[in-house]
Amino acid sequence: MADLFVKQAKEYLQTRPSYPAKLVEFIASKTPNHDLVWDDGCGSGQAAIL
């Protein structure tokens, strides 16, 4: 069962579009300090790796 999850997770990571750079830049422009980030409700976690 774990192997199935690993395979699906890898495929998801490879095929799901990333967030647009402009969106990340916009959000970053609204915060004065970038040393610490809280990703509340990150879902798949892909926003956390940006």
UniProtKB/TrEMBL annotation:
Q: Which GO terms describe its biological process?
A: methylation
Q: Does the keyword Transferase apply?
A: yes
Superkingdom, natural source: Eukaryota
Q: Secretion signal: which residues?
A: none
Keyword Mitochondrion on entry:
no
Sorted keywords for this record are: Methyltransferase, Transferase
Kindly list the GO molecular function terms attached to this UniProt entry: methyltransferase activity
What protein does this entry describe?
Methyltransferase type
Organism (species): Thalictrum thalictroides
